[in-house]
TrEMBL record:
Pfam families: ADH_N, ADH_zinc_N. InterPro entries: Acrylyl-CoA_reductase_AcuI, ADH-like_C, ADH-like_N, ER, GroES-like_sf, NAD(P)-bd_dom_sf, Zn-ADH-like_protein. It comes from the Bacteria. Residues 12-323 form the Enoyl reductase (ER) domain. The keyword Nucleus does not apply. This is Acrylyl-CoA reductase AcuI. SUPFAM superfamilies: GroES-like, NAD(P)-binding Rossmann-fold domains.
Length: 326
């Protein structure tokens, strides 16, 4: 394959994303060449493809912060042609050509062998969003979240949110899902949410301390919603902060931290250390019920991605979007 199909963002012009043939010699350096089977659409890809966020560091760029596929060529002792692999983060789709192309050349140390029990498509159904949700769950577990109280997920109908609801419910937590789309209540309950609440209940200005309700929270929204979550976390509880779909600024007080011992836990999927990365993927393969994953995934062709990139930024995408390359 001397040339291959790719979605390319040619320049900082927001209209410059287009599908074209790319050549092998355009690919960045790396010791493994992967035939990409699937990528997925994450919020960050929306920012990259539309130019709404300064995600892309050099042009032209193939977006796609994750991919799953099969090794075609390898100069690494750890991978051989035919191996099924997945990759999230490490700057692919930002500073290194990413997953929205039929081929990707990457560094072997970024690759995760496809865990047993997952197909390539399922791996991208999970994708960066699901990996992040699992990291958030692991962070809460490490801080001993009290199972007798409720756990909150914000931005619940989105990608990270849907996976977090499903994983936490599966683990036996009573999950409260916060959403701006109450029309998705049935969907969220089907993933395991015990209760669905309207986002504005959290985003309205809160007192420094409200009644203690949640033992923990996975927050994908940030901004006013996170500010509304912290005063409602029970004594010793924890909030795993993973996103900023509702804004990056956090205006709060120190009282939840100094009077209730609340923990604010940062979650980063991009540079997550390898040992934790492998563990999270192993757990995802074993613990995420497949029917729930299927229920939250929609598969699209590369041509549909630019329009969906706009939609995901407007909070109009439900669950996960898998992009088919092969
Ligand atoms: P999605 O767009 O799929 O989900 C985001 C959800 O947030 C939406 O579905 C919506 O949920 C809610 N939302 C959207 N806009 C607003 C708004 N203006 N105000 C309040 N809520 C809003 O995105 P992803 O799941 O892919 O990503 C979620 C967030 O997590 C993003 O900020 C992303 O950048 C971040 N992220 C961080 C990672 C990390 O490594 N830390 C990795 C992956 C993602 P609803 O309709 O239910 O209210």
């Amino acid at each position: 394959m001397q040339t291959f199909r790719a979605l390319v963002v040619e320049s900082s012009d927001p209209q410059s994303a287009r599908i074209r043939q790319a050549s092998l010699d355009e690919l960045p350096p790396g010791d493994v060449l992967v035939r990409v089977a699937y990528s997925s659409l994450n919020y960050k890809d929306g920012l990259a493809i539309t130019g709404a966020g300064k995600v892309i560091r050099s042009f032209p760029m193939v977006p796609g912060i994750d991919l799953a596929g099969v090794v075609l060529e390898s100069a690494s002792a750890h991978f051989k042609p035919g191996d099924a692999v997945l990759l999230t983060g490490y700057g692919i789709g930002e500073r290194h050509w990413g997953g929205m192309a039929e081929l990707a050349r990457v560094r072997s140390e970024w690759l995760v062998p496809l865990p047993e029990g997952l197909t390539l498509k399922e791996a991208m159904g999970i994708g960066t969003a699901g990996f992040t949700a699992m990291l958030a769950v692991m962070a809460l577990e490490a801080h001993g979240v009290d199972k007798t109280r409720e756990v909150l997920v914000t931005g619940a109908a989105g990608g990270v949110g849907s996976l977090a609801v499903a994983l936490l419910a599966r683990l036996g937590y009573r999950v409260v899902a916060s959403t701006g789309r109450l029309s998705e209540e049935g969907y969220l309950r089907s993933l395991g949410a015990a209760e669905v609440i309207e986002r504005s209940l959290l985003s309205a200005p809160a007192r420094p301390l409200e009644s203690e309700r949640f033992a923990g929270a996975v927050d994908t929204v940030g901004g006013a919603v996170l500010a509304g979550v912290l005063p409602r976390v029970a004594y010793g509880g924890s909030v795993a902060a993973c996103g900023n779909a509702g804004g990056p600024r956090l205006e709060t007080t120190v009282f939840p931290f100094i009077l209730r011992g609340v923990n604010l836990l940062g979650v980063d999927s991009v540079m997550c250390p390898r040992e934790q990365r492998l563990l999270a993927w192993q757990r995802l393969a074993q613990e995420l019920p497949k029917p729930l994953l299927e229920a939250m995934v929609r598969t699209v062709e590369l041509e549909e991605v630019p329009a969906l990139a706009q939609a995901i930024l407007q909070g109009q995408v439900r669950g996960r979007v898998v992009v088919r390359l092969a």
